[in-house]
Amino acid sequence: MRTIHNMKVLLISILYIFLMSIASLSMGETITATSHGNWNDRETWDIRIPTVNDDVFICGQMIIVNSEQYCRSIWITADTISDTKLSVVDGDLHIKHHLTVEVDNQNKHTDVEIKGRACINVGGYVVFERSIKNNQKARMQLHITEYGQMNVQDDFEFSYGAAHKKENNQEIWLEGHAQLNVQGSLTFEQIKHGRDAELLITDNALLTVDGHMFIAHFVGERVKVQLRDQSIVNVRGSLAFYHGYFMTNDFSYIDMFDGSALCVAGDFEIYPRGSKTIMYIRLHQSSAFHIRGRLIVHKAGWDNLKIQLNDYSSVSIGGLGLKENTLASLKAFNVTGGRCNISIVGKKLVATPRHKSAALMQ
User: Using an 8 Å Cβ cutoff, are 335 and 351 in contact?
Assistant: First the structure.
């Protein structure tokens, strides 16, 4: 009888431990990376390998994902001693809620890399925030390459603080058939003094934004958007570009090369703070800029916008949102190469490199 009783006690104990383990997994815990290594390696983490309901914290470690993995959320932050990096290579990482990357007054790099037909799926929002002061040398970068892909079901925000002048300034870098798909809105902004902030999309890469896209620089150098090698940006909402720094000869750029295209289903709005801030849109080598909605320049007027076309490039605009005479707005257009095309609904524009400008035909 004693033996049967002991076995019952043992079975109840085992069942209790099993049920507690299931409850712990279902509730989730905060799992911290304690060493460089593979996500699927127990030695990489303080408690256990993260599961679908766990919050993951990574600081000063380099974590590799090369299989299918799950978690509730990820918080990545800079370290004072070692670089921090999440690298998804030939694997899939499913994040149930959100991905947050923060860099604050540190000198080490903090990067997220997606490479080799790998994918990060985020069920919520994504935030990259760098609030460094005094031009520190730390980099914060999202790099997607070699058919890598990131899918975000909510908003995507990349707020870029100061950087050292010697730092590589490709803050968001899509290349090699990479894709970044955002179902919400996308914000790319420079918020402190330092090196130019750059969104680089090259080599057949694709950026798709189902909501609105907002690009801004409030202080410091410039914001640059570059499309190269037949890359595409497709914004299904509106695109807004904000100049927040009152400075003589303060520029921002959208540069397109090699058959690349920027397509906006809504309006394209430009908000210059002062009369000396200039927004350049430069098209080269059969590139295209298509706005289904209106082109609107707020405040200071059309001297703040320069659209340059070269080598078979084209611009199409659904309309002009301005109170002034339409003819005045044509100062924005400058044609420097052969056989370019400018089309505005309700107006006929003839672009001729001989006159180096666009002419309005009533």
Answer: yes
Q: What span, in angstroms and rounded, lies between the C-alpha atoms of 219 and 350?
A: 38
The two three-digit tokens of residue 140, written as one number: 């914060």
Question: Which residues, at least 6 apart from 59, have a Cβ–Cβ distance to it below 8 Å?
Answer: 32, 33, 76, 77, 78, 79, 84
Of residues 65 and 318, the one with the higher pLDDT is 65
The pTM for the full model equals 0.85
Q: Considering the domain boundaries, does residue 8 fall inside one?
A: no
- Give the pLDDT confidence of 182-240 residue by residue, as tens digits: 999 999 988 765 567 889 999 999 999 999 999 987 665 678 899 999 999 999 999 99
Residues of the domain holding 273: 72-361
Burial class of residue 68 (count of CB atoms within 10 Å of its CB; 0-12, 13-18, 19+): exposed
Distance (Å, whole) CA 203 – CA 285 = 14
Q: Domains in the chain: how many in total?
A: 1
The Cα–Cα gap between 269 and 72 comes to 37
In a domain, 211, yes or no: yes
Of the candidates 203, 198, 188, the residue with the CA atom closest to the CA atom of residue 147? 203
Q: State the average pLDDT for the chain.
A: 81
Can you tell me the distance from the alpha carbon of 350 to that of 352, in angstroms, rounded to the nearest whole number?
6
Tell me the per-residue pLDDT of 251-278, one tens digit each, with 9 for 90 and over.
678 999 999 999 999 999 887 765 566 7
Length of the chain as a residue count: 362
Q: Is the dihedral of CA 50, 147, 77, 241 positive or negative?
A: negative
Structural domain includes residue 56: no
Instruction: Give the pLDDT band of residue 318 (cuts 50, 70, 90).
Output: confident
Strand partners, 114: 88, 144
Asked if 87 and 59 touch (Cβ cutoff 8 Å), the reply is no
Asked if 204 and 230 count as a contact pair (C-beta separation under 8 A), the reply is yes
Residue 52 lies in a domain: no
Pick 221 or 33 by higher pLDDT.
33
